[in-house]
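ok trying again, last paste got cut off:
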Amino acid sequence: MSVVIYVNGNIYTMDAALPYAQAMAVDTEHGRILAIGPDDEVRRVGPAGQAREVIDLHGKTMLPGFIDAHIHLLDAAYRSHYIDAEGCRSAEAVARLVQERVAQTPAGQWILGGHWDKNLWPGQHFPTRLLLDAVAPAHPVALWSKDGHLLWVNSLALQRATITSATPQPENGVILHDADGVPTGVLQEEGATSLVYRVIDRSDPTMNRVFLHRIIGELQRFGITTIHDIEGETSLDLFREMRDAGTLGVRVQMIVPRTLLPQLPALGIHNADNDLLRVGGIKIFADGTLGSQTAAMLESFEGSPGNYGILSTSEREMLDNVRDAARLGATIAIHAIGDRAARVALNAIEYAQTMLAQGGISNASLPQLRYRLEHVQLIAPEDLQRMRRLGVVASIQPFHAVADRDIAERYWGRRHRHAYAYRTMHAMGIPLALGSDAPVETFDPFRILYAATLRRDPNLPRPPWMLDQALPMADALWSYTLVAAYAGAEEQRKGSLSVGKLGDAVVLREDILHVAQERMPENGVQATILGGKLVYGTV
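nice, full thing came through this time. structure:
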């Protein structure tokens, strides 16, 4: 056994039984914490003669490693490779980026990218294929929106996907048409966007590996030691390959699409012996998004009478999927942004719990089972009470609140006062797990914590937005560590610095609980520790 002992630290353990410590000893062979407490006690850990390394923290602050409870890592890794239209303030500006890429791309090859946001454009109108046709007549073009729920394509892309005026509207999606009944080039939600995605050329496996290695280094630089990755089999296969090669460098829990529900047992859903990679459960889309005006609503969007959004999964399918996943003891993560989506999701969760109880199955017999609502951006007060009663985790991304503030007020009107209600949820006892939703928003924990506690973007000179819903820093950190571990049914293995748990930690330049919150973006990570070993920085 090889032991590393970190001493002379300011350690916030996130363990209620021992909230503060000076030192931590980790068995680096197995990655587990052997002891935590005062310097003099921890220094004595381990039998004589074993390999020992003592590292002085010089009074620096140590926390459990951050757990990003909602990220799409491969998508985030590819963002630097694709056209990035985030800074574009018009459809024409996006088209100019496409035109530049056309000049560098052989005819017939796909031009991909996105992150465009029509809500920042004059008039906030949907774009059309005609603009892309003008700059890319010989290249199929597919550009996803910032939230990933819209796809803007040109005529050649429509042809390759065999989408015409006669194509019937798909289930759980919409093909927009012009006044003449011709597809405009904008597709809404998975039922429609998948028609194009399935004909896009597969990505290069070599590039996948290169980009993943690069972005995992970024995760380590930000002190992120575990992610809940919401992607499919391509990512899972890559993570397996990296794990087997000893190059993974971050712990991954996969939450796979609901279409893989029948395969969950074979994917090793209950493989708790693997500390680097496991499949936790399934992701179900209940609706679309606010930015695309496809979130499923109890009342129509402001200024758009009759638009109640889109239920991405039918209520019957939702009931069946949640029940079947619950019987397997899987994590069930349901994307729910609109208040109707949250209600439909909670109906399914309550139904599943009733079915389990009638079958004599208790929650205690399914220790891996977690019910989660992802995003929970707008929810009726009575459904918040149901979340608490049903034990549902709110998997939230605080940066959405500050990025979406203008469109929340525009499209939800008076209802925006009930949106992104993080402090209300916390006060009610609803578990909050923090994440990023990258590549939609940043995965920088300090910008996310700033948004959670001050309700504004540190890079924009704007006043806080609904400051009454800000979280205290201690609670935000709790949600970024132990509660996020709980959301993945891994609170017995990680999320706090406790004896027997994994020795995953982050060392900060400053004491995050005792420095002015306005200075948070200036703080940063001194070192990141995975299983007791330094994987980034020095101390």
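cool. The first strand starts at residue 2 and ends at 7. DSSP finds 18 helices and 24 strands in the chain.
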